[in-house]
Design a protein that fits this description.
The protein is globular, with a radius of gyration of 18 Å. The chain has ten helices and six strands; from the N terminus they run H-H-H-H-H-H-E-H-H-E-E-H-E-H-E-E. Helix 4 packs antiparallel against helix 5 and helix 5 runs parallel beside helix 9. A hairpin with a 5-residue loop joins strand 2 and strand 3. With 240 residues, it is mostly helical. The protein starts with 12 loop residues before the first helix and ends with a strand.
Length: 240
């Protein structure tokens, strides 16, 4: 059975910020959709394209599964207090939770960049097709998501057409935000239990420097630890 791609639009950060603002007003879904429609009317051509774009935005921030509601609630509180740069961490965290396709494209980008530095659109597309199947919708979605990453500043075009390199990882000092983000990253993981060694280098968190906060997990009530064997420490999010 084919998995749903979902994140198949090019999304701008100011649209995400606008969606967060609407969620903070606690508006009805239909009202939020109408306001977003008006905001995007001159930015996204065609009513069907606008509808699909709004679907992505609302799935990220408004129509969140019950299991992710506590994380969303924290994110909406932090969004009103943090800088635009820190708010980007919130958008990425919610994207990982909402769309496995987003997570897998980001993971592929992270893996390729670590292996060889720059990489091509074709390489990402080929790996995604191996995992998600041969579909024309996937080809378009990969292209749009890579261009979204460029717009967001986490990827850069190289001198070779269709080739990219990752930007330097982003750093913050906001411990609460970093731990919230790590919670999202673990819940987005297919196993939800990873070793501390792996957590430092989760490929789908490639735009962020998480290393300074890994030891803070032990002092947080968000996570629990177990041991496998003599020296492998595993971490997982505590269910809420």
């Amino acid at each position: 059975m084919n998995r749903i791609i979902g994140f198949d639009r090019k999304i701008q950060l100011d649209w995400l910020d606008a969606t967060v603002g609407l969620c903070q007003e606690d508006l009805d879904f239909d009202i939020m959709a109408e306001r977003l429609h008006r905001q995007l009317e001159n930015k996204v051509a065609g009513p069907e394209s606008r509808r699909k774009t709004i679907t992505v935005l609302l799935r990220l921030w408004a129509k969140v599964p019950t299991t992710d509601q506590p994380l969303r609630g924290e994110a909406l509180q932090m969004a009103a207090q943090v800088s635009p740069e820190e708010r980007f961490w919130l958008h990425w965290g919610m994207s990982m939770l909402a769309y496995p396709f987003f997570r897998d494209v980001a993971a592929t980008v992270g893996q390729l960049s670590r292996l060889q530095g720059s990489f091509s659109h074709a390489q990402v597309q080929r790996r995604m097709m191996e995992n998600w199947g041969q579909r024309t919708t996937l080809q378009r979605a990969v292209q749009r998501l890579l261009r979204t990453f460029v717009d967001w500043g986490v990827l850069r075009d190289t001198d070779t057409r269709g080739s990219y390199e990752v930007a330097p990882p982003r750093q913050i000092e906001n411990r609460a935000l970093a731990l919230w983000f790590l919670d999202c990253a673990l819940r987005a993981h297919e196993a939800e239990v990873v070793s501390l060694r792996e957590l430092e280098r989760l490929s789908y968190t490639f735009p962020f420097d998480l290393l300074p906060f890994v030891n803070d997990l032990r002092r947080s009530d968000r996570f629990e630890f177990t041991r496998q064997g003599l020296d492998l420490e595993m971490v997982s999010p505590i269910e809420v």
